[in-house]
C-alpha cells in the first residue's frame, strides 16, 4: 500500500470541531475584512476631491498673454474646491466616526438580544448600500455637502453591527488558551481590509473615484449574503442541529410508530428552557390498515438552570479593567484612525507623490500593523501581562511618531522602514485591546460564566475607542492648516495619555507573583 501523503495525514488529524473552528476563524476574518475594506476608500479619494490644479493652465491667446486656469479643467470636486477643504474633509470623517461611536454603545446591547447571524447580515447589506451611495455621487454629479455627510452618518451607524458580532462569535469558539496569538492573527483582518481597500480605491481613483466606493460596497454586501448562509454563532448551535437531525432520522415512515421514541424525539427538538406541548394525535396502523387515533400525552421539558440574562451597561462597567482599557483605547484609536484617514494625504503633500502612489505606500503602515498585532498577542500570552505589553509598545511609539513627522527629509528606503515600524507600534496596542483584552474581560470570572456579556463589553471598549477615532481625524483636519507638525504633536500627546491610563494595571501586573494569560486584574 502506498504511504499516505503528509498533507493528508495532517488534515485527517483534525476532528469535526477543529474544522468548524477553522471555518469560523476564516469566515469571521473575511467578514470584518470587508468592513475595513469599505472604510478605506475615503482616505484615498481625499487627494482627488481636492487637487492642486495650478498646473492646469490655458495656453496664452493673442488677446491675453497671461496664462490663466481653464474653468472647464478645474480638477477639484465641489464643494471641496474651497480654501477650507481640510475642514470639510475632516467633517466627513467626523460625521462617520461620531455616528459609529454613538451607535457602538447601543450595538452591543442590541446584539446580545438578537441572533448574531441575522444582525450582522442586515448590517453588512445596508453598509454596502450606503458605501455604493457615496460613489454614486460621482456618477450622478452630486455636489451637495449634506448628501455626503448623510451617507457617512448612516454608514457609521450600520457599521457598528460588525465588531461586537464577530468578536462575540470568535470568543464563543475559542477559549483563553493562546487567545493573544489567535486574536492577534485574527485581528490582522483590519490591516488586510485597509490594504485591499487602498489597492481597490487606488486603482479607480484617478479615472473614476466613484468606483473606489462602489466596488467595496458590492463586496461587503456579497459577504453579508455569505454570512447569512454560513455563519455558525456558537458551538452549541451544531449540537442543536445534530440533535434535530438525529430526531428526524428516528421518525421512521413505517406503518407503526413507537410512542416512546416519539416522546424522545419531541424532547430532543425542544430548545433548552422551552416548554413543548403536543395535543396532536398519533396514527397507529394495524395489519388491516385501520386507522386508530390515540391522543399523545403532554410532554413538558423544563430547564434545570436559569438562562443567564444579558448584562446591563453599568454592570459591564463594573467589571475590573473595563474602564481603564476603554479610556486607553480612546487615545490609542485616536492615533490609529488619524493615520487611517489622513496618512495618504500626508504622504501626498510631504513626499510630493500622486494619490495612487501615496495610497500604495500607505499600505506599508498596515503591513506593520499586522506584524505588531501578532507580536503583541504572542508576547502578552507568554508574559501573561496584557497591560504591560500595551504600555511598552505605547512608550516606544512616541519617538517613532516624532521621527515620522520628518518623512519629507527621508529617502524612499527610510520612509518604508518608518512606515512599517510606526504601523506596528501604533496598531499593536489597539489590536490587543480590541480583541484579546475584550474577550478576556467579557469572560471575566466575576461574571460567573455568563458569556452573554461579551458583546456588551466589546461594544463599550470599542465604542469608547471610537470616540477617540472620531476626534482624531477632526483635530487633524483643523491642525493641519497650521502645519503637519501640529498634527504629530497631538498624536504624541494622545499616546502619552494612553500610556498614563494603563499605569495602575501595569503596576498590578508587575506586583503579581505568577504569570498567567489574560488580564491580570482581580
Automatic annotation (TrEMBL):
Stretches that traverse the bilayer: 88-110, 116-140, 185-205, 211-232, 322-343, 363-380, 392-412, 418-441, 453-475, 487-506
InterPro entries: MFS, MFS_dom, MFS_trans_sf, SLC37A1_2, Sugar_P_transporter
Record field: catalytic activity: D-glucose 6-phosphate(in) + phosphate(out) = D-glucose 6-phosphate(out) + phosphate(in)
UniProt keyword terms in alphabetical order: Membrane, Sugar transport, Transmembrane, Transmembrane helix, Transport
Main subcellular localisation: membrane
GO biological process, one term: phosphate ion transmembrane transport
GO cellular component entries: endoplasmic reticulum membrane
Keyword Transmembrane helix recorded: yes
Gene3D superfamilies: MFS general substrate transporter like domains
Organism superkingdom: Eukaryota
Membrane topology qualifier: Multi-pass membrane protein
SUPFAM superfamilies named among the record's database cross-references: MFS general substrate transporter
PROSITE patterns named in the record: MFS
Domain Major facilitator superfamily (MFS) profile: 27-510
Gene Ontology molecular functions: glucose 6-phosphate:phosphate antiporter activity
Subcellular localization, as worded in the UniProt entry: Membrane
Family (UniProt): Belongs to the major facilitator superfamily. Organophosphate:Pi antiporter (OPA) (TC 2.A.1.4) family.
Name of the protein in question: Major facilitator superfamily (MFS) profile domain-containing protein
Source organism of this protein record: Culter alburnus (Topmouth culter)
Amino acid at each position: 500500500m502506498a504511504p499516505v501523503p503528509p498533507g493528508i495525514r495532517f488534515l485527517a488529524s483534525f476532528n469535526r470541531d477543529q474544522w468548524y473552528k477553522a471555518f469560523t476563524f476564516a469566515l469571521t476574518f473575511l467578514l470584518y475584512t470587508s468592513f475595513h475594506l469599505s472604510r478605506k476608500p475615503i482616505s484615498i479619494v481625499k487627494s482627488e476631491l481636492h487637487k492642486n490644479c495650478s498646473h492646469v493652465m490655458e495656453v496664452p491667446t493673442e488677446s491675453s498673454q497671461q496664462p490663466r486656469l481653464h474653468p472647464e479643467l478645474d480638477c477639484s470636486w465641489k464643494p471641496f474646491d474651497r480654501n477650507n477643504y481640510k475642514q470639510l474633509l475632516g467633517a466627513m470623517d467626523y460625521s462617520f466616526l461620531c455616528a459609529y461611536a454613538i451607535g457602538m454603545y447601543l450595538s452591543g446591547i442590541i446584539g446580545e438580544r438578537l441572533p448574531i447571524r441575522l444582525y450582522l447580515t442586515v448590517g453588512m447589506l445596508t453598509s454596502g448600500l450606503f458605501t455604493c451611495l457615496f460613489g454614486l455621487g460621482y456618477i450622478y454629479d452630486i455636489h451637495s455637502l449634506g448628501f455626503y455627510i448623510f451617507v457617512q452618518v448612516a454608514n457609521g451607524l450600520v457599521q457598528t453591527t460588525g465588531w461586537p458580532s464577530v468578536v462575540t462569535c470568535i470568543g464563543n469558539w475559542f477559549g483563553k488558551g493562546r487567545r493573544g496569538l489567535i486574536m492577534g492573527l485574527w485581528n490582522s483582518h483590519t490591516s488586510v481590509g485597509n490594504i485591499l481597500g487602498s489597492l481597490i480605491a487606488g486603482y479607480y481613483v484617478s479615472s473614476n473615484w466613484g468606483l473606489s466606493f462602489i466596488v467595496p460596497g458590492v463586496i461587503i454586501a456579497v459577504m453579508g449574503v455569505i454570512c447569512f448562509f454560513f455563519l455558525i454563532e456558537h458551538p452549541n448551535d451544531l449540537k442543536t442541529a445534530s440533535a434535530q437531525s438525529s430526531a428526524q432520522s428516528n421518525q421512521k415512515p413505517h406503518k407503526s410508530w413507537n410512542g416512546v421514541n416519539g416522546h424522545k424525539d419531541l424532547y430532543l427538538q425542544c430548545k433548552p428552557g422551552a416548554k413543548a406541548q403536543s395535543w396532536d394525535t398519533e396514527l397507529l396502523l394495524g395489519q388491516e390498515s385501520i386507522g386508530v387515533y390515540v391522543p399523545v400525552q403532554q410532554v413538558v421539558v423544563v430547564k434545570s438552570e436559569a438562562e443567564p440574562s444579558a448584562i446591563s451597561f453599568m454592570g459591564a462597567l463594573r467589571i475590573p479593567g473595563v474602564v481603564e482599557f476603554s479610556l486607553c483605547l480612546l487615545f490609542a484609536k485616536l492615533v490609529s484612525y488619524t493615520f487611517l484617514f489622513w496618512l495618504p494625504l500626508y504622504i501626498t503633500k510631504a513626499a510630493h507623490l500622486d494619490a495612487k502612489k501615496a495610497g500604495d505606500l500607505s499600505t506599508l503602515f498596515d503591513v506593520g500593523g499586522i506584524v505588531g498585532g501578532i507580536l503583541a498577542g504572542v508576547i502578552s500570552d507568554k508574559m501573561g501581562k496584557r497591560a504591560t505589553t500595551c504600555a511598552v509598545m505605547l512608550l516606544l511609539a512616541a519617538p517613532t511618531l516624532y521621527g515620522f513627522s520628518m518623512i519629507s527629509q527621508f529617502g524612499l528606503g527610510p520612509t518604508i522602514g518608518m512606515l512599517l515600524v510606526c504601523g506596528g507600534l501604533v496598531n499593536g496596542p489597539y489590536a490587543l485591546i480590541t480583541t484579546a483584552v475584550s474577550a478576556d474581560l467579557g469572560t471575566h470570572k466575576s461574571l460567573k460564566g455568563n458569556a452573554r456579556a461579551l458583546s456588551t463589553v466589546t461594544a463599550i471598549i470599542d465604542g469608547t475607542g471610537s470616540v477617540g477615532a472620531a476626534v482624531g481625524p477632526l483635530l487633524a483636519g483643523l491642525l493641519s492648516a497650521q502645519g503637519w507638525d501640529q498634527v504629530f504633536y497631538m498624536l504624541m500627546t494622545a499616546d502619552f495619555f494612553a500610556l498614563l491610563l494603563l499605569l495602575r494595571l501595569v503596576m498590578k501586573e508587575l506586583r503579581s507573583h505568577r504569570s498567567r494569560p489574560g488580564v491580570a486584574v482581580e
